[in-house]
Design goal:
Elements (H helix, E strand, L loop, with lengths): L1 H22 L3 H129 L6 E3 L15 E3 L4
Antiparallel strand pairs: 1-2
Helix pairs in contact: 1-2
Length: 186
């Protein structure tokens, strides 16, 4: 900033000196202007040139530092991206393995549960079948026994001895007549 202000001041002084030399035509002023110009040129060579070289060197160092920082930043970003990629790939692989293990466990558990359910259903159906068979056999036995009792009742002859003194051998004997009745000792 200081160098730039000095440079602007020197340039302004040179322009002023040139303007003054053109305005005044005398040799005395021309010689004085010539000395001023030579003095300005000497100051430019000795001071401003050194300042410009210092600024140029500082600028180059700043550019090199910026490039170095950018290269390190890019290297950091590249390493970070690679680390994230590696981490995500590992996590995805781990999740894939875990998911497959869980599916295998689910399949095995489902198979076991279905086998147990099948065994339980088979046992229950066998129990129901056995129970219903026993009940059915009991019902059949009871119905058969009852039918035999009815058949025995139907096969039985019941004889009742009756008399009818008003009947003279024609038609059916009617024991309800006034001359009829049951024989009590029959």
């Amino acid at each position: 900033e200081v160098v730039r202000m000095r440079s602007q001041g020197l340039v302004t002084a040179i322009l002023f000196a040139l303007t003054c030399s053109l305005a005044k035509g005398s040799d005395l002023i021309g010689n004085e202007n010539k000395r001023d110009i030579e003095e300005i040129a000497r100051v430019l060579r000795e001071t401003v040139k050194a300042d410009l070289e210092t600024l140029f060197n500082q600028h180059n160092e700043l550019v090199e530092q910026t490039i170095d920082v950018m290269e390190k930043s890019l290297a950091y970003v590249d390493k970070f991206a690679e680390d994230i990629k590696t981490h995500l790939e590992k996590r995805i692989d781990d999740m894939d393995v875990n998911t497959m293990n869980n599916f295998e466990l689910l399949e095995a558990n489902t198979n076991d549960m279905l086998t147990k359910m099948n065994e339980t259903l088979t046992t229950n159906l066998d129990n129901i079948n056995q129970q219903s068979k026993e009940e059915r056999n009991e019902i059949i036995w009871w119905a058969h026994h009852r039918a035999h009792l009815h058949e025995d009742i139907l096969k039985t002859r019941i004889t009742a001895c009756a008399y009818d003194y008003g009947h003279f051998g024609k038609g059916v004997v009617n024991y309800n007549s006034k001359d009829g009745g049951y024989i009590a000792d029959s």
